[in-house]
Amino acid sequence: MVLGIQTLQTGVLGGIVVGLVTAWLHNRYNKIELPQFLGFFGGSRFIPIVSSFAAIFIGIALFLIWPTIQLGITQLGGLVDRTGYIGTLLYGFVLRMLGPLGLHHIFYLPFWQTGVGGTMEVAGKVYEGDPATEKFFSGTSRFMSGRFITMMFGLLGAALAIYHTAKPERKKVVGGLMLSAALTSFLTGITEPLEFSFLFVAPILYVIHAVFDGLAFMLSHIFEITIGQTFSGGLIDFILFGILQGNAKTNWIIVPIIGVVWFFLYYFTFRILIVKLNLKTSGREDETNTPSSAKGAERSIAILNGLGGADNINELDCCATRLRVSVKDIEKVQKDALTATGAKGVVLVGNGVQVIYGPQVTVIKNEIEEIMETE
């Protein structure tokens, strides 16, 4: 009920629908020209107007179909709950496998913020996705806590294995890269720089990594670890939502215990497979296409050229670790040239390009925008 009016609680999924429709309307009408007496409302100013009218029809459509969707969400949550530990394992595995495509955000949000992640009845009222309880709601943290084991411990073992299996003459360079990527994963939970160092050259390692991550989620569920997060599974969130909340509420002390085992599990698994299968991980690849040492404007110019030039770019944006670009002609994108600029990976989806650089991607995006403005 809102102001005494019965309303539909679509939550985050409703926001996703409105966001997608608004984005579509923007792409379609952002250059619209209205009659002269309405000219002020043309272009981008037209988007809020048309979006408001579109929202009316979205509301009508949701009134008709949302009850069915809500029932499906509830049943999915019940299915995950009934499958118990196996359901948690599958969640962690799928979450990790969607990471390279950048679709993991769409997957985990319903588990975090809707009834899919479980519900709790307090004083006769049902709550979902609400952490404001004495012990962080185990239904929600069930889909969060496993990350800390993988990001703070497991991937550090993988980084050490990649360093130890590198060619002697490349160990100094690889050591610097792996140390930086491992610290980023440990402190902040940003794993792309490390994961993309082996995803494309050794996909089997990534699949195994996804399985281990799923197992980490399952173990967290088994041992009732209930650590929440604001961003990811790094040390910062571990301290805020684990240690500072007290072991009685979160069981955080179990994380480093499992984590030590996970470190060695990753280390020996990665090292054995890299050597036995002769996988071309960092420091073992052929000497052609070695990353360029160019920095600043020089690197950004090379990236822009690798994307097909300024004229080939429709939209340029970034997230925490990835440069996200919409291009006019995907054939003009040069993956090798982008990799040579120090990219950890390049993903092409339709006319979209994702170039993974790590936490410094915001600086790179700003540099490219400055270059494009001067051309």
From TrEMBL:
The GO cellular component terms are: plasma membrane
Taxonomically, the superkingdom here is: Eukaryota
Lipid bilayer topology: Multi-pass membrane protein
| Keyword entries, A-Z | Cell membrane, Kinase, Membrane, Phosphotransferase system, Sugar transport, Transferase, Transmembrane, Transmembrane helix, Transport
| Residues annotated as domain PTS EIIC type-1 | 1-286
- The residues covered by the PTS EIIB type-1 domain are 297-375
Broad class of where this protein is predominantly found: membrane
Task: Report if keyword rRNA-binding is assigned.
Answer: no
From the record, give the transmembrane residue ranges: 7-26, 46-69, 89-111, 148-166, 173-190, 196-219, 226-246, 252-274
A single Gene Ontology molecular function, please? kinase activity
Compartments it resides in: Cell membrane
**One biological process GO term for this chain?**
phosphoenolpyruvate-dependent sugar phosphotransferase system
What CDD domains is this protein classified in? PTS_IIB_glc
Read off the Pfam families from this record.
PTS_EIIB, PTS_EIIC
Q: Which InterPro entries match?
A: Glu_permease_IIB, PTrfase_EIIB_Cys, PTS_EIIC, PTS_EIIC_1, PTS_Glucose_EIICBA, PTS_IIB_1
Q: Which PANTHER family match?
A: CYTOCHROME C-TYPE SYNTHESIS PROTEIN AND PTS TRANSMEMBRANE COMPONENT, PTS SYSTEM, IIBC COMPONENT
- Full protein name: PTS EIIB type-1 domain-containing protein
Q: Which species is listed as the source? A: Phytophthora kernoviae 00238/432
